[in-house]
Write a structure and sequence with these properties.
Elements: E1 2-12, E2 19-29, E3 35-41, E4 48-53, E5 59-61, E6 74-78, E7 82-85, E8 87-101, E9 104-117, E10 123-125, E11 138-143, E12 152-155, E13 162-166, E14 176-177, E15 186-195
Antiparallel strand pairs: 1-2, 2-3, 3-4, 4-5, 6-8, 7-10, 8-9, 9-15, 10-13, 11-12, 11-15, 12-13, 13-14
Length: 196
């Protein structure tokens, strides 16, 4: 069981809501030594837990104590796209950024390719975190020079690679992976959100 280690109460005295209306509390299990810090708010002398910083490092909200629901990471930064198949090489990258909140990663990229393509699947890599092993994610692509309508990017499960595809707009033909020779030199812009 959890026992309170220490608590700071914030109390009001006015007639409309007298009593403890907020608190900061440290509590923990006396057998394991693990402790958490909770913040409570409310009115009328009956505050309830609003935020908890768990002993394992995550944050839960509104009295939720399940570790699986804890927000345990926030990060933002830059990443470096590169090409692994399909010819071409990166000419320059204007921007390649990411934001990670818990298991969700959102990436944006504005890069350009130079050289020549070939008949291999055009494949890029460099995602800042590998997508989950059972997860695909897609995003719309703005490519300066590509010989198809509706190109989109798709992450690959468990790897930092991503490929480019287009729909055949047919009930009898599946989508097509774009080869390097279906692109021309120019910019490639896309954003994508995926789970890790």
């Amino acid at each position: 069981t959890n026992e309170t280690i220490g608590q700071i109460n914030f109390e009001t005295q006015d007639s409309g809501g007298a009593g403890v209306n907020a608190y900061i509390k440290a509590a923990g299990a006396n057998t394991s030594g693990a402790a958490y810090l909770a913040f409570g708010t409310g009115t009328g002398g009956s505050p309830s837990e609003a935020i908890r910083i768990t002993s394992s490092g995550g944050i839960t909200f509104n009295g939720d104590t399940a570790s699986a629901n804890a927000l345990d990471d926030y990060e933002e930064g830059n990443w470096t796209p590169s090409i692994t198949a399909g010819g071409w090489s990166i000419d320059s990258t204007v921007s390649a950024t990411y934001t990670k909140i818990g298991r969700v990663v959102h990436v944006n990229v504005y890069t350009s390719i130079t050289g020549t393509g070939n008949s291999d699947d055009f494949t890029m890599t460099g995602l800042p975190f590998n997508p989950a092993s059972n997860h695909y994610a897609i995003g719309k692509v703005d490519a300066e020079k590509v010989n198809t309508h509706g190109a989109y990017v798709r992450s690959q499960p468990g790897t930092a690679h991503f490929i480019f595809l287009n729909s055949e707009e047919s009930t009898s033909t599946g989508r097509t992976v774009l080869d390097g020779n279906e692109f021309g030199a120019g910019y490639i812009i896309f954003s994508m959100t995926y789970f890790v």
